[in-house]
C-alpha cells in the first residue's frame, strides 16, 4: 500500500483529484468506481473544476459502490441523487453509463444485475474509496466476508449514527444497503482511498497496521497490489510507522521527478 500523508484535508483531496484526472487523461474511456459521503463532496467539486478547465468525461463509465435499499433514484437521500447533485449534472458524462445499484428492486436481483454490469463493462480501472469510522469500505460493515460480491448488507449502529444527519426523520432511514463486495472492490486495477480527520484515525490505523480481518473490512486492502491511501495529518495521527511512510513517499516523489526529467 502506498501511503500519502498530507498536511491538510484540502491537500489530500487535491492529491486524489489529481490521480483521477490523470487516469482520465491517460485513458479517456476509463471505468471508474465512485464513492459517496461527506469526504467526497469537496473532491467532486475539484472534478467539476477540472471539467470547467477542459477535461472531458464524455467517454467515462462509472460504478458507484452502494445504494440504500428502498430509496428510488429521485429520493434526495439516495446515492443516485447525491451523485447527480455533486458531480454528474455538472460534467459532460453520459449518465446512461453511470451505474448505481437499484435500491427499488429485490436486493438479490439488484446485486446479481450489478455484478453482471461490472463484468460487462469492467474491469474497473480506478476505484475510489472513503473509509467508515468502523473500518467499512462501501457498506461492507465489520463481519463482511473478505471474499464477498455485491449483496445486501445491514448497516451497523455506527453507520446508522454517522449517516442519520442526512435524514430528517429517523423512521425514514433505511437500515440496509446494496454494496459492492470486498472481492468486487478488490478486482479493480487500482484503488485510491481518501480518509480525512481525527474521527478516521483509528480506522486508518487498523486498515494499515492491523491484522487483515473481517473486523476491519478495509484491512483487506493490504492484500491488493495497487492501493494508494491518501490521508491528512489528523487521520494519520495514530500510525506507528508514520515517519517510515513519509520517507517512502519522499523516495517515490524523487523517482517520479527523475522519470519526468529523463
Ligand atoms: C459511501 C461509502 C462509504 C463512505 C464512508 C465514509 O458510498 O462507500 O464507505 O465512504 O462511510 O463516509 P464519510 O465520507 O461521510 O465519512
Account of the protein in words:
The protein is α/β, with parallel strands linked by helices and 262 residues long. It contains nine helices and ten strands. The protein has helices at 9-26, 38-52, 79-86, 107-121, 157-163, 182-186, 201-209, 233-236, 242-261, and strands at 2-6, 31-34, 61-64, 66-68, 98-99, 126-129, 151-154, 176-179, 190-195, 227-232. The strands form two sheets. It has a seven-stranded parallel sheet, sandwiched between helices. Strands 4-8-7 form a three-stranded antiparallel sheet. Strand 2, helix 2 (38-52) and strand 3 form a beta-alpha-beta unit. Helix 1 (9-26) packs across helix 2. The longest helix has 20 residues, at 242-261. The chain is globular, with a radius of gyration of 18 Å. The model has no long low-confidence stretch (mean pLDDT 96). The structure holds fructose -6-phosphate. Residues 35-39, 65-66, 130-132, 136-138 line the site of fructose -6-phosphate.
Summarize the structure.
The protein is of the alpha/beta class.
Instruction: List low-pLDDT spans.
Output: none
Strand content: 15-25%
Give me the secondary-structure category.
alpha/beta
Mean pLDDT: 96
Order of helices and strands: EHEHEEHEHEEHEHEHEHH
Cα-to-Cα separation, first versus last residue: 26 Å
Shape: globular
Radius of gyration: 18 Å
Small molecules in complex: fructose -6-phosphate
